[in-house]
C-alpha cells in the first residue's frame, strides 16, 4: 500500500492511495456522491491487489483530504470532476486503467468510456443507472419520502453527531442482506476524522454539467463492460442495471441477491472480487 498522497491534479489537490504493484494492471475505483475513498474499504482493495491489480482509490473534490470548496457554494462543475479522472490517470502516468464505478461513480465511469475510450481497459458499473427515464423503475416510496423530507444536517463540528448522521444516512439504502452498522460506523468514524470540511461533501448534489444524457450514447461504448447490480436496490431498482447491460454492446450482468444501493458489502466480497478479477484479466 502506498499513500495516501496529495497529488496536484487539474489545478487542485486530490488525495490518492494505491494498493499493489504499479507493474500490475491498474484498477481505478470511482465512488458515489459525497463519498470519500474510505467507502472502498482497505481490505477490499487489498484483496484486489492480491489478485494482481494495481488498485487506486481517491478522495474526489470536497471529500476527505482533497481540495474543498465552501459548503453550499461549489466553485467547479460536474465536468471538472470528470476531467479530474483523466488528469489523475495522467498524474499517475497510466495510459489506461480498468474503471470501476459505483452509483454516481458509475455514471462518471460511463462518461470516461464514451469520451476517453483509449484510457479505459474495461468498465465495471455497480449499483448505477443509465440516467432517469420514464421506462426505468422509480426509487422506492421509502427513499422518495427521504429525498422530499430529509433530516436536518447535524452540527458537523460535533464528531459524534456527524458520525451518527452518516450512519443513519446510509441505513435506508441497504438491501435484505442487512445493514452492518458496525462496519458503516467504523467507516463513518474514519470519514469524520479525515475530512477537511464535512459539510462541503454536500456540494456534489448541487453540480451541473453540460454533457447531456448518457443513455442515447450507450451503444457507442466499445470496452468490455460488467454490470453488477443488487436485487434490492431501492434507489436504482434492478431494471436500471438490466438497461445498462442491454444497451451497452456485449455487456454482462451479474445480479447480487439481496444487495441494496451500496458498495458491495462484505457478505458478497467473494463473489464480487471473483467477478472483478475475471473481468479485468
Helix/strand layout:
Blueprint: E1 2-9, E2 12-19, E3 26-30, H1 42-50, E4 54-59, H2 78-91, E5 97-102, H3 104-115, E6 120-126, H4 141-148, H5 159-170, H6 181-194, E7 225-230, H7 238-247, E8 252-256, H8 269-279
Parallel strand pairs: 3-4, 3-5, 5-6, 6-7, 7-8
Antiparallel strand pairs: 1-2, 2-4
Helix pairs in contact: 5-6
Q: Which ranges are low-confidence, i.e. pLDDT below 50, for 5 or more consecutive residues?
A: none
Helix content: 25-40%
How do the SSEs run, as a string of H and E?
Answer: EEEHEHEHEHHHEHEH
What is the molecular shape? globular
Tell me what the CATH architecture is: 3-Layer(aba) Sandwich
Let me know the largest β-sheet.
8 strands, mixed
Q: What is the spatial order of strands in the main beta sheet?
A: 1-2-4-3-5-6-7-8
Number of strands: 8
What count of structural domains? 1
What is the CATH superfamily classification?
Alpha/Beta hydrolase fold, catalytic domain
Which value, in Å, is the CA radius of gyration? 17 Å
Top CATH class: Alpha Beta
State the end-to-end distance: 21 Å
Structural class estimated from helices and strands: alpha/beta
Tell me the number of helical segments per DSSP (H or I, 4 or more residues long): 8
Overall mean pLDDT: 96
Q: The CATH topology, please?
A: Rossmann fold
How much beta, percentage-wise?
Answer: 15-25%
